[in-house]
Amino acid sequence: MSSTIRLTTAQALVRWMTAQRSELLDGTVVPLFAGVFGIFGHGNVLGLGTALHEVADELPTWRGQNEQGMALAAVAYARATDRRQVMAATSSIGPGALNMVTAAGLAHANRLPVLLLPGDTFVGRAPDPVLQQVEHFGDPTTTVNDAFRPVSRYFDRITKPEQLIATLPQVARVLTDPADCGPVTLALPQDVQAEELDFPAAMFEVRVHRTPRPRPDTRALAEAAEVLAHAERPLLVLGGGARYSGAGAEAIAFAEKHQVPVVETVAGRTLVPHDHPLYGGALGIVGSASANTLALEADVVLAVGTRLQDFTTSSWTGFAPDVRLVTVNAARFDAVKHNALAVTGDARETLVELSEAAGDARSSAAWVARTSEVKGRWDAEIDRLRAGVGPAGVLTYATVTGVVNDESTPDDYVLTASGGMPGELHGGWRTGEVKHGTSSTSGATMDLEYGFSCMGYEVVAPWGAAMARERTHPDGLVTSIFGDGSYLMLNSELYSAAFSGHPYVAVVCDNGGFAVIHRLQTGQGAAGFNNLLSDSRGPGAGEGGVRVDFAAHAASLGAHVEDVPFGSSAEDFRAAYLRAREAARAQRRPAVVSCKVAESSWTESGAWWETGVPGSLAGHTSYAEAKQRQVRWL
Predict the structure, then answer these.
(1) How many CA atoms lie within 13 A of 408 on its CB side?
(2) Listed GO molecular functions (predicted)?
(3) Whole-model pTM?
(4) CATH topology of domain 387-541+549-596
């Protein structure tokens, strides 16, 4: 007779979490669940909260200030571990739960794992309606947690303890599967959390989860090899799937053997050293003119581990009309898009097998020379943008990025998410030393969250990333660069990181509002409206109006602060950034560098992005012309 253990539902869930293990790319076995971010309230404090307290040393619980913020930090943790480890986030019912929906959307869009454990209303319904319950007149089974369904890869509501036996293997599958990876939501009614059951002891045996590496279909592989063998100007595009597979070294070997220029998407950034002779730059709207030129001239595009979103394809105007598209992806859903020749399989293993199948196929020396030519021109442009300061003697985004790039080490980690900074980091960052094997890369690794482009992510993500990397890269440091708009959206977790003792540097670039959207607005001929502080409604908009003292605010949240005054030079900023790095490490807390930057100085790739432009605006003519270039892909 099999043995059983009597536990509450919450205890069983937590005990199962502590028994799960994950194998890293280098073969090291670590806990699959590294910890829990939690804000307690009625709905999770007694059931799940008690269970978490009992295992606090095995599964640490970290206190957040805002449910969205802590859940975003949890997603950033997974990104920083190449999806090999997962954080959970728990909230009370009602507004606490709904605050995490945005984080679920971000994780879903970016194919990143996170376990969300929102409290839920009573299954027994005796006290209905309870505090924070939203009642649905025609369906009493519906709660606010149903809002997680469209942004979860896997959703379940645990209404009986024994349901855990069936659902937990599925939870682990989704969190660790390269094709289905994404957020998992388990809604936990507070009465069920406290119910007891004799659970089978086998549920809690240690289990090591190894990321599967499915091999491609041999016929699809042969067809792809045939296409590459006849390519004159092939281009290799590396996406996030190549990173999570640990395929960086194999991708470079493929490029070198077949002399194929290689470019990166935002999720695949920093896989290839900047100085590699076959590196063509960062692809897409916020990328480089060099990579975009190569994409337009390529006759075959081999896209590995990317879902080819519009910022990568320049709204599907970035490739030649007659290009042959070959995709390699663990998820067939992504592989088959846009009539591509789909090769479904693990990025690392497929690149190895495809290289063998392609034999001695090589592109021409002229195509490789073209790569060097266009990249050289782009490098010169970045050098020009980084030099000095912008209009009126103000620092620019490019200058700030250049300084951080110069001072970063191979073990560092840099991130951003929204506004104008993605164009600087993706388009202008120069990856130095890259180490493949022990992790996907450690050459100043980048987390550029541009799948959901979630303002505020870059403010809280360094907390999760710093947690993740303190074990794997103890000599490195996380730096996040973002604008004043993002800071104002979600700054409370600065205090969480200061309180918990996790160091990183946050660079706040103040350009007076949502300047990148102002650029989009006015660049199409619309009037500036409600984006910059100066063109928004209210008495605070005018000269000398209400503004935020970011340095004072960050200091009040427990951060070390370096304030770079208006009109400072690049070397002034460099000195402040270096002091911030030193202080963050020495004081074990975030260090914030606050600086004024130019309102309208940007790194431009020249690519087109589709946004709906009314016929009354000046930009409608170029919009209509660009739409014609999409016909091939419709």
Answers:
(1) 32
(2) 3D-(3,5/4)-trihydroxycyclohexane-1,2-dione hydrolase activity
(3) 0.96
(4) Rossmann fold (3.40.50)
